Amino acid sequence: MFPNSSNLGCPPFPPKRPQQSNFFNKLPLTIPPTLLSHQQVIDAQFNFQNAALSRALLSGNLATIPAVTPQPMTYGNGSPVHMSDAPTSFRGRKRLRKQRVPYDVKRQRFHSHHSETTVVSQAVPLPEERRYSFPGSIQSPLFHAHYIPDLTGCVPPLRDTLFPDPIETRLPVAKDKLSQQVLELFQACQQQTCDLNRKELCRTELQREIQRIFPQSRLFLVGSSLNGFGTRRSDGDLCLVVKEEPVNQKTEARHILSLVQKLFSTKLSSYIERPQLIRAKVPIVKFRDKVSCVEFDLNVNNIVGIRNTFLLRTYAYIENRVRPLVLVVKKWASFHDINDASRGTLSSYSLVLMVLHYLQTLPEPILPSLQKNYPESFDPTMQLHLVHQAPCTIPPYLSKNGSSLGELLIGFFKYYATEFDWSHQMISVREAKAIPRPDGIEWRNKFICVEEPFDGTNTARAVHEKQKFDIIKGEFLKSWQILRDKKDLNCILPLRSTTQKR
Description:
Strand content: 5-15%
Distance between the termini: 45 Å
């Protein structure tokens, strides 16, 4: 049933009956992937002429030291990763002191055409002028103009046409100090085009290699990289789809991931490092891509992750206060050490759902329930190759609530510090309200209950210790009290160091 050393390259999981969907069959498998264009900004590594340099130093003749010629870092297929010709690119993770960019220039760059490009995950890489980002329809902006969504139109940019010329993102107006701090932190830390391009490049190359083992598989970029809530430091989340039917996560998924891990640690070890199989409820392979310097988590057939990526993406863009608020809350939680599910605190996904839920439950809501208002667009049974098309039909949500970003941030902390009933209620974005806890085993003896909008599981199940729960509640209470009195974001989140880390 599983590929092994004697039958690598055979189609995985032969169907017991004819498949009803032609999701995979209608996508060409023979087109070789090509690397991204010269528009990308990739941190290249250099290969120095060590032998000649050593001889020159030993002889004392510095005039004979050869000129250093940068050699492009390559993936396993030998294709080079080109450096950007842009004057603002740097060699390595940090700028040199003499290359520091003045603050005024940074502020201008926040509103330039090089801020985050909104794209969807490319399924089958096609030739340069005909690449598509998702199974079945749309062209990727990675190889065309940098696209910045216009929040006055529909949710960007999931269309069947080429992307329009760049348009400035319309962010909320900040009229008070706290709102201005929230806005500036968002502008400094939001995911940029070059960050997304690095992840997409790695995804393209890994899909090519994985298809040697599972020819009909597809590798999707999901999570914060695509849902609109990514930061400069966001890891990459990948979903490997090997078949349309569900995969047993305890047996099949682990076996597939063990093969992927072996591939990463052997053939791909030149550019993939530290591949580690994590046997969680949804098992993953964690690894680092040496070329992009990005940490990745790869799962198998966790289809709900693809669906919720586009649900969250729609929430992110239908109201222009959502993304700045979510980013600040994620940064705040990370600073206070309550944003790590592996250590018994809240995942970033749970934090996003908590912010969306709060904005839905205000006396004058800022967000609706998209699943209630547009059930056909977010049908959990919708075929996978159609999922990305749903957001393009959703218009902006026009709320009568005129609260500023600062007021909303204070209200967020107050809601979870004093109003939400942790013992008896569950956070539900699907219902746009707090609902009574179910009596199932999934919810029993859990301190925090956050409903996954599609499969109904508890996204906060990692918080299973009362000590950690008390710490989380305490941080909400302290931050609310401080922010209420001081109206200064620096009092709960040091902005300078946070911006430097990004």
